[in-house]
Automatic annotation (TrEMBL):
Claim: Signal is one of the keywords in the record: yes
Leucine-binding protein domain mapped to chain residues: 39-109
SUPFAM superfamilies xrefs: Periplasmic binding protein-like I
Protein name, entry field: Leucine-binding protein domain-containing protein
Family: Belongs to the leucine-binding protein family.
Gene source species: Angustibacter aerolatus
Key words, A-Z: Amino-acid transport, Signal, Transport
Signal peptide: 1-23
Length: 129
């Protein structure tokens, strides 16, 4: 249980860092659908279902705390942040599809803590597709 709590806190810190990085870069840096949006869209890909679902639930909850704190402090470049979550499905193909969907939909930053650890190579798969 303690490890799960730590992972949620670590994820929250990671999303906070992503929001700060977006601010430091002057915005989304992309030309996707969200480039001119009034909100900053943050995406989380994790084990939302299956045997690891408790970890994924904790990650989403921790990330939402971070987003709420970011918004309470004025947001990112004056824009409010929103959190979207996707299930990695314990599959690099499912994770890669979620990565591509976030990119196509204009999600400005993604966090994939469990995917990075559990499913190495998913990023390369997303880039090839």
């Amino acid at each position: 249980m303690r490890k799960r709590s730590f992972e949620a806190v670590a994820l929250a810190a990671g999303l906070s860092a992503a929001a700060v990085a977006l601010a430091a870069c002057g915005g989304s840096g992309g030309s996707g659908a969200g480039a001119e949006a009034k909100t900053i869209r943050l995406g989380l890909i994790g084990p939302i279902s299956g045997a690891q679902s408790q970890i994924g639930t904790n990650q989403v909850a921790g990330a939402q705390v971070a987003v709420d704190q970011i918004n309470a402090a004025g947001g990112v470049l004056g824009k409010q942040a929103t959190l979207e979550s996707a299930d990695e499905g314990a599959s690099s193909a499912t994770a890669a599809a979620a990565i591509r969907r976030y990119a196509a939909d204009g999600v400005q930053a993604q966090a994939r803590p469990a995917v990075e650890r559990e499913l190495p190579g998913h990023g390369a798969a997303a880039c090839r597709a």
